Amino acid sequence: MERGKNSQQVISGPPPVKLVNRETKPEGTIVNVQGIQIGSSEVVVMAGPCAVENREQLLAIARAVQASGGKILRGGAFKPRTSPYSFTGLKEEGLKLLATVRQETGLPVVTEVMDTRQVEMVCRYADILQVGSRNMQNFALLEEVGQCNIPVLLKRGMSATIKEFLFAAEYILKHGNQQVILCERGIRTFETSTRYTLDLNAVPMLKKLSHLPVIVDPSHGTGHWWMVPWLAKAAVAVGADGLLVEVHYKPEEALSDGPQCLRPDKFDSMMQEINKVARAVGRKISIPKPIHELSNSTV
Amino acid sequence: MERGKNSQQVISGPPPVKLVNRETKPEGTIVNVQGIQIGSSEVVVMAGPCAVENREQLLAIARAVQASGGKILRGGAFKPRTSPYSFTGLKEEGLKLLATVRQETGLPVVTEVMDTRQVEMVCRYADILQVGSRNMQNFALLEEVGQCNIPVLLKRGMSATIKEFLFAAEYILKHGNQQVILCERGIRTFETSTRYTLDLNAVPMLKKLSHLPVIVDPSHGTGHWWMVPWLAKAAVAVGADGLLVEVHYKPEEALSDGPQCLRPDKFDSMMQEINKVARAVGRKISIPKPIHELSNSTV
Amino acid sequence: MERGKNSQQVISGPPPVKLVNRETKPEGTIVNVQGIQIGSSEVVVMAGPCAVENREQLLAIARAVQASGGKILRGGAFKPRTSPYSFTGLKEEGLKLLATVRQETGLPVVTEVMDTRQVEMVCRYADILQVGSRNMQNFALLEEVGQCNIPVLLKRGMSATIKEFLFAAEYILKHGNQQVILCERGIRTFETSTRYTLDLNAVPMLKKLSHLPVIVDPSHGTGHWWMVPWLAKAAVAVGADGLLVEVHYKPEEALSDGPQCLRPDKFDSMMQEINKVARAVGRKISIPKPIHELSNSTV
Amino acid sequence: MERGKNSQQVISGPPPVKLVNRETKPEGTIVNVQGIQIGSSEVVVMAGPCAVENREQLLAIARAVQASGGKILRGGAFKPRTSPYSFTGLKEEGLKLLATVRQETGLPVVTEVMDTRQVEMVCRYADILQVGSRNMQNFALLEEVGQCNIPVLLKRGMSATIKEFLFAAEYILKHGNQQVILCERGIRTFETSTRYTLDLNAVPMLKKLSHLPVIVDPSHGTGHWWMVPWLAKAAVAVGADGLLVEVHYKPEEALSDGPQCLRPDKFDSMMQEINKVARAVGRKISIPKPIHELSNSTV
What we know:
Four copies of one chain form a homotetramer.
Chain A: E1 31-33, E2 36-38, E3 44-48, H1 55-67, E4 72-74, H2 92-105, E5 109-112, H3 119-125, E6 128-131, H4 139-145, E7 152-155, H5 162-174, E8 180-184, H6 202-209, E9 214-216, H7 218-222, H8 228-237, E10 242-246, H9 264-280, H10 289-298
Parallel strand pairs in A: 3-4, 3-10, 4-5, 5-6, 6-7, 7-8, 8-9, 9-10
Antiparallel strand pairs in A: 1-2
């Protein structure tokens, strides 16, 4: 009857994860996206605009990303925004633009899905479904993408513990989808000079506890374009399997997140730099040299 | 071209909220739930089990809640749970039990909706739709409940700033539903001796910035049943328009959140105590005295 | 040899506190300051300017504080400031002013000590030594005040857990001084609309774990003068044994922390309000009525 | 008279730093410690036990550190400990051991000073004075080390913003000492799987805002020995000028912080790895190859 005795104890959580646990599956999972292997020795860079704005914008950025060694195109058609008065994306029109640009460039596409009712539609256009930070514990959505046949990029909630993050992934695996990529994107702390605090401790910790590949988003994690290359190098050094980076030709005109977007020339320099770090830690990035030299002269 | 100059600045946010802003509507909004006025001089207590488990449990708790002065019955039919292996609620069966008990007791019902596809169904059974902390920025869900004709209880995200919280409410009002109740339920901090840190600063700040009523959930906010009456008193003193409290006859057997549930006798004492505090700050709680005395002898 | 197995565990902390533990001493400690009992049924209010500025300022504020029921005068002679270019206090001259005003009003004085080398000097003038938030783990200072014969008001570090806070107090008791008052003054969180997040959960938790009296500082805890009365009422409702409040006649000219200082008339209203809450929770505040009426006409 | 209008504003802080500001001194400061240049192209590694325990322990670790390329010996003689019942260091005896081992190995020594009264004594033995995280805003101590003639290693407070960290350094420079090394050592967040959250965003941000060299402590920043090499690589990649690492022969017997100490063989592997990363980002670490090979066979 007396429950007071243990009342200063922290409430103990649920039992440990199963399906995402590395003890269950010691070898690392490799997520295959149209032949690109995430979780292999190659560091895979996904880049593109925060939001899909129009065909010209998207195609130009996609070509630049590809020329510099980016392997997957990111771009939001459905945009979660703090204010209902901000631009919230082109919706299905944006998805169609992504599909068009994929066809023209051959780059697979990762894009966000925000609502269970959109999952089927987004699946028709995307190569990877992104579940955003604010939806990491939208359990209905996790269950729905868990029933899809395409990979899921799951972003860590901005105040989710490592444990909660892994449980969110567990929801997806439990519903049948084993192709999950974890993404550290910055956590909320007291610090205000950066948008979030990119938590690179999370990378080795996630890889120790789980067999799933782990990528890092230095754009949201810092909120400042000039910091992105620095944190991208750190992410590669700390063992990330890939990066998610925002690129835009005219960041000051971007409809979303301009201050954290890299211009293509800066993105290209960043790719050169992280390639060196990747090699220093026994990994690599395949950069299409000739096209890259070409792109340098045209950008 | 040079963006470096301002780069140490924090990214400025969106323009201020409009519809929820007290400057737009200086007098406080009163949300009317079957004649119960939330935002009036009466402090409205909503109480019940974390999860609906069965008819007997729910009815017994509802009668106890009512006897002690609780005005609205809370109970989860859809339960967001960190682990996919935890009990996730009775779903529609739970909603039906809530409706039955409402009929028997006359208590209006508040219950959570987690998915846009469930909104219509939950509306058929509930008097107030609850949007949980983990869905505070599930914008698709906000838009959907914004189109409903029944009040919405919006819980603050566990790491949402006051500003983000108000923007989430703005989504609902912008879609047509003006009947929104804000609920502070504890934020995530470094402290580990409590489940969350109930942020009572939020109450006067929200009431200054917005005309919407504000209630407090001391059960989730602390995670310890013995702390609930203390923080409930503080919440009333700091100006809360209501409370959301978990009550269970056998907390140690509760399928969810047992350690933070009050037993009915403790809930009854709490109601007596907060009534005194309410009167000290110029408010009141109407406690049905005779029934209360009766319930004391039967519990 | 293999240490990897437990590596995901959180490093376990030191064994529990002893001397400050309520299990060691079940009855609450009452700290006696010139006949004023902190930890008794009376809620003791300590108030005054953030920094001692001059004799006129200090005396006028002291008389107003006293007239409204304040029992102890607060005022900083040594001020910890984030920037070395801010006003850092009048030093010993400030202590002398405090002593003078104490003599004129009879109000005991609480003032901060920041350096082990100042302890002896501050002891000559003060009735309570304050150890500030930034020095909560200045262990040399804790040991030094632990050897003094006058009470110590220990403020919680802005990111100290309850456990660390109690260990800091343990340092003082272990060195011989049993007269310690714990003070919750706001913790650092992600929220930016308030200066800190006043953690009222801490009050019942500290009182459960320890026998030491607990007071609350709503001025630093919120950073906004208009919030102070609200949080003061909540602090009394949640069980605080006292309050520490900043009062200034001209907050806009204060050399430190103006935006969080109450004017004497607002302080007086606050005292009336918290008195009602105190009585609602079985405590009291003795307000000198006639003097108060007099002060109302002169201020 | 009406101050309410701006009351939802965050209290604005003090004006920007001056002496530590990179705008005041665009070229980076190089701190010279017995010929070792911190802030140059070389990444300087400081390593050793958390606490000095005895001569044998210290000398053995120092030789291992040196053999692997460590340039400065760290070791605590005065240990700030959360609990007064933990080992708090050998005090002056520990300083003497550090001086002896310095003489035998030629390694300069960095050690913590916790109290203004100890500064003179510690100066007699140390090559760098360390001000710990818990004392980052012990302003009396900052002023005192600001008057010393030897370099100061200033650790970021566990909940200090970048701005507050720079202001703490400003105190030291303002009092005359220009030789300050900033050290990121992990901040306090909600995450519990690591001891702290090492904030690598801080490195480029500090280097942008200030001319002072910046080093990183991955031992405290993670709390797990196996994570240290990962975060050390990331720290070098993100631009750190040095590292502070805990090394112990028998971590399980260490009197302080064992779980985060590297064994010498792991430290040696780490040095090889970070050397590769350093070269990839245009920097270097001078590792005494022959001695290193020798040490491999003897350890």
